[in-house]
């Protein structure tokens, strides 16, 4: 079955960086778009970023554009999210998701358990 395991979360200072990773298994990783989303305390689920199955295109929420970079390694079945210039409002539980096909980057068919990111001084 589909398994998505996030890692790399933790505590960062405002202006700092973190790199999230997602290890995927149970499906052909290179056939699917992949997605990052987050949920902050007391707030709704927010789509953050997505990437085509072949990595040829990416998309970002306005709130993270220019600060976050999504990437993937199809040889290692791994998805990443490089987060720079972190802000306190980036504090959330971050989820890795599998898309429903190769190119739709805003709809997920499965999610991992999440990794916590806390941005605070």
What does this structure look like?
- The chain is mainly β.
- Helix content is 0%, strand content 50%.
- It has strands at residues 3-7, 10-12, 18-25, 34-39, 45-51, 58-60, 68-73, 78-83, 92-99, 108-111, 115-119.
- A hairpin with a 6-residue loop joins strand 5 and strand 6.
Please render the helix and strand layout as text.
Layout (H helix, E strand, L loop, with lengths): L2 E5 L2 E3 L5 E8 L8 E6 L5 E7 L6 E3 L7 E6 L4 E6 L8 E8 L8 E4 L3 E5 L2
Parallel strand pairs: 2-11
Antiparallel strand pairs: 1-3, 3-8, 4-5, 4-9, 5-6, 7-8, 9-10, 9-11
Provide key terms for this protein.
121 residues, 4-stranded antiparallel beta sheet, mainly beta
Count of beta strands: 11
Q: Output the number of helix runs.
A: 0
Shape: globular
The profile of the biggest β sheet is: 7 strands, mixed
Cα end-to-end separation: 40 Å
Which spans have pLDDT < 50 for at least 5 consecutive residues? none
Helix content: under 10%
Q: Structural class of the secondary elements?
A: mainly beta
- What is the H-and-E element order? EEEEEEEEEEE
How would you state the average pLDDT, rounded?
97
Rounded to the nearest angstrom, the radius of gyration is 13 Å
| Proportion in β-strands | over 45%
